[in-house]
Amino acid sequence: MADTIVDDRAVFTVKGFDSLTYAPRGIEIILPNSSEKHYIPDVLEELKPKVGMTFDNMDQAFAYYCNYAAASGFGVRKGTDSKTNNGVIKLKYYLCSKEGFNQKKKVDTLEENAKQKVVRANFSKRTGCQAHIRVELVQDKWNIYKFVEEHNHFFVNEEDMHFLASSRKLTQLQKHMIQSMAKINIGPVRAFNVMRTIFGGFEEVGVSKNDCKNFKREINLFINEYDAEMMVGNLMKKKEHLPDFSCEYFTDEENCLVGLFWSDGESKRNYQVFGDIMSFDATYRSNRYSMVFVPFTGIDNHNNNVSFGAALLASETAETYKWLLRCFLKAFDPAMKKAIEDVFSGSRHRLCMWHVMHKLSTKVGVTLCNTTDFKQRICDIVWTDSLSPSEFEVGWHSVIQDFDLSDNNWLGDIYDMRESWIPAYYRDELMSGLMRTTSRSESENHFFGQVCNVRSTLLEFLTHFETAIESQRHNQRKNDHDTRYTRPQLKTDFVLEKQASQIYTKTLFLDVQVEIVGIEKCINVKLENIDGFTKFFIKDFDQLCNSYFEEEAIVKAGKKSRQCQNCKEYGHYASTCSKPPKKTGVNTKEKTFDTMSADS
C-alpha cells in the first residue's frame, strides 16, 4: 500500500512509510540519437551560463557556475586545465560532480586468508555526466567558451542540497564559533551540535560534522610545523607590549623548545598578596608533544587556588627545573624569602598526596579496597593533619599487619617516602591552606584538567590556559563582590564574632565562626608566666583532650603569630582554633595554650 504526497517542491511516494521515492527534478528530455533520459535544470534564464560571458578571473567564473548549480540541484567540482609554456593557465574546465566514473576497487570478502588487500564496498556518485563549462583566457579576461547544459541524472531536491559537498561552505561566523569553542576545549563535532541547536536543524547549519572537523584539521596542519615558534612568538609579543608580563624560554642544540615560562601582571600582583605559600605541580601532560605543564599555585583570601605563573617543560631534569625556578625568581622577586635545592634553598620538596593515593586501588587491588575497610582505615591516617608522626607510624603498621601487606613493594616504597607526602610530617610547616586535602586536589586537577589535552597543539593549549585563568579571575572577583556586599548571620553575641565578620572574607569567616562558637564551651582555668611565655590552661567541656597554642611576637612585622600546638591550625589554614581536633589520641581533661609575650 502506498500513499502519494504532493507539494510545491517535489512529488514522491511513501511505501509503508519506510522508503521515499522522489519524482525527478528538472526538465526531462531525450537527446537525438539516444534513448536515455537527460535533464535540464528548471531555473531562471538569467542564472544560466551562456557562451561568451566574460569574467575578470577564474574564481568569478567558478562562483557563477556554483550559484547556477545550487539553484539547479547538482554539485560542482574543478576539472583539468591547460597551461602555456610559461606555466600560466589558459583554459579551465568546471564539471558536474557526477562527471566520469569511479575506478573499480576490490570489495570486502569473507576469505580469512585473502592475499590481496580488500576495501569496503562503496556506492559511486559518478554517472559519466557530460555537463560542464569551459572557460578560456583571452586578453586578460576569462570567457565561457563552451557550455553543456544536459545532465544524465535528475537533480537534488532543495531540502537536500546541504548534502552536496559543493553546496556546503563554512561561513566566517561558523569558523569563529568553532575556534571560540576550541578555547574551552570543545571539539568541532560538539561545536557542530551546538550550531545545529542554535540555527534550528541540520539543514539550517549548511555544513556537516566532517566539514567542521576538516576545518579544524586544516588549521592544525598549518600550525603543526610552526607550533612552538608561534606560541613563543605570541608570548614574547605580549612581553613586549604588556606591562609586567614575563616570558622566558630556552631551546636545545637542534633549536627545539625545551622550556617555556610565562606570567602576566595580574599573576604577579596576586603573588604579592597571596605569595606566602606556593606550590608547583609537574604531573600534567598537556599536549601532543607530551610536554609537562607546571602551574605555580597559591591560595587566595577565599581559600581558592590562585595562579602565579605557568611553564611547559620538554624534559624533567635537575637542570631544567633549576632553569625554571630561576625564571620564577627573576620574574617575581630576586630577593624572595622562600627561595628546591640550590635555588630555593629554604623550601621543602613535597609529593602530591592526591596522586599517591589515587594509585591505591591499582597497587593493592580493587577487591581489597572495595570489599574491606582497608581503604577507609588507610585514608583515616593519611588524609589528616591531626596525627603526630609517631601516631601515623603506629596506625600505618597496624593496617599493614591486619591486612598482611608487608610484602607489597609499592606500599613499602611510599612508606619510605612518608616524610615527603604525609601531613603528619608537616605539622610544623607553615602551609596557609595549601595542605592537599582530597577536595582541594580534586578541584585543582579538574581546573587544570580542562587545560590539558594530549591531542592539543601548543597554541590550543595556550588558549585553553588563558580561558581557564580568565574563569579563575572572574570567580575571584565574584567572591570579592559577595564579601563586600553581603553580611553573614551571626550566631553569638561576642564582639569578636562581629569584628571577624567585618575583617574576614565570606569563605574564611564561616571557618572562623565555627571556632568562635566553640569558645562558649571553653573556659580559662589558669595561666602561668614561664621564661617570657604566658601559658594558658583552657578547659574544654565538649571533649577530653590536650592542646595549646603559642603566640609569638614578630617584631619586624609588628604583629603576633599564634598556633595551636596540637592541630597546628593557624600555620596550616591561617585561622585560630578554639578547641583541639576530635581524634588526637590524647586523653586528658584539660588543654594547654602557651603564649610568648610581645616583649620577648
From TrEMBL:
Region feature (Disordered): 581-600
Residue ranges occupied by any MULE transposase domain in the UniProt entry: 278-359
One Pfam family per UniProt: MULE
Matches recorded under SUPFAM superfamilies: Retrovirus zinc finger-like domains
InterPro entries: FAR1_DNA_bnd_dom (IPR004330), MULE_transposase_dom (IPR018289), Znf_CCHC_sf (IPR036875)
Boundaries of every FAR1 domain copy: 64-155
GO molecular function ontology, one term from the record: zinc ion binding
Name of this protein: Protein FAR1-RELATED SEQUENCE
Organism per entry: Tagetes erecta (African marigold)
